[in-house]
Amino acid sequence: MIHDVVHHFYATAREDPVIGPVFRAHVPDAQWHHHLARIETFWCSTLLGTRTYDGRPMPKHLAIPELSDVHFRRWLALFRHTVEMLCPPKTAQLFVARSERIAEAFRINIAMHRKKDLVFHAPLTREPYP
């Protein structure tokens, strides 16, 4: 199921007009297959506790200067739609809850890295599926 979610979601995300350009700019076509395998391992570790993922995704995301809340909202909307379409309800809820926590952690780390004031850093609002 994780394989199906990852491959379906990223195929959609790569073509999305908001987040697709970011993916295409930072993950070249030649590395796309490897990237999907790493993301699949990440989700297996995150959801199933396999401990097979040994990467550090934060530095790669910190290096994307154009990454903003617009991108996180769209990523979450597409991801939520994908898991609700492909997974049983309880599994989809787990995916969604985990993805939202990850997105918030990334946002906070990116904001700190960019030396933004976190006092007024409101949580992401949910964007409807386009």
TrEMBL record:
Top-level division of the source organism's lineage: Bacteria
CDD domains (alphabetical): TrHb3_P
Name of protein: Group III truncated hemoglobin
Organism from which the protein derives: Arenibacterium halophilum
InterPro entries hit by this protein: Globin-like_sf (IPR009050), Globin/Proto (IPR012292)
